[in-house]
Amino acid sequence: MTDFKDTELQLKRLSHGQDVELPAYQSAHAAGMDLHAAVEADVTIGPGDIALIPCGFAMAIPPGYEAQVRPRSGLAVKHGISMPNAPGTIDADYRGEVRVPLINLGREAFTVSRHMRIAQMIIAPVTHVTWCEVNELDDTTRSTGGFGHTGQ
């Protein structure tokens, strides 16, 4: 038994992704699902370069939710592979293919091959706000202290 709320999402496999694994949780308490590369041929990303990697599926996220796409920590630590827009957001009204921009921050070229786990995706609720313009904000201990203010 898990403590997670199950939400059903519609997913459509695209023709070039028929044999690629669907997004999947890798452990019972994982927050993110691994996304797999649906590249037709290996893609080599040189140091400092960015490549947009297809995942072979599209999905229908329900209103009130978003998908957050994040780098995989193993690729980041071992190879310097991350995402230039981390985390990436997929809105509920997007119906195109899920693709992941990868950036090579490492010192050596990195090759993405078909089926490779390249990122993770979290489905999360979205809160819309209504702005209430005021002349003054309530005071806090931190107040206007910015980056590095806490000494960390």
What does this structure look like?
This protein has 152 residues and is mostly beta strands. The protein has a domain at 34-125: Distorted Sandwich (Deoxyuridine 5'-Triphosphate Nucleotidohydrolase, Chain A), CATH 2.70.40. Helix content is 5%, strand content 37%. The chain contains 1 helix and 11 strands; from the N terminus they run E-E-E-E-E-E-H-E-E-E-E-E. The chain has one helix spanning 73-79; strands at 10-13, 24-25, 33-36, 43-45, 50-60, 65-71, 81-82, 88-90, 97-104, 110-112, 117-125. The protein has a 5-stranded antiparallel sheet with strand order 2-3-11-6-8. Strands 1-5-9-7 form a 4-stranded antiparallel sheet. It has a two-stranded antiparallel ribbon with strand order 4-10. Strand 2 and strand 3 (33-36) form a beta hairpin. The chain is globular, with a radius of gyration of 19 Å. It starts with 9 loop residues before the first strand and ends in a 27-residue tail after the last strand. The model has no long low-confidence stretch (mean pLDDT 93).
Short summary:
This protein is mainly beta. It has 1 helix and 11 strands, in the order ββββββαβββββ. 5% of the residues lie in helices and 37% in strands.
Strand-helix topology:
Elements: E1 10-13, E2 24-25, E3 33-36, E4 43-45, E5 50-60, E6 65-71, H1 73-79, E7 81-82, E8 88-90, E9 97-104, E10 110-112, E11 117-125
Antiparallel strand pairs: 1-5, 2-3, 3-11, 4-10, 5-9, 6-8, 6-11, 7-9
From the spread of the alpha carbons, the general shape counts as globular
Structural class: mainly beta
CATH architecture designation of the domain at 34-125: Distorted Sandwich
Give the % helix: under 10%
Number of helices: 1
* Low-confidence parts: none
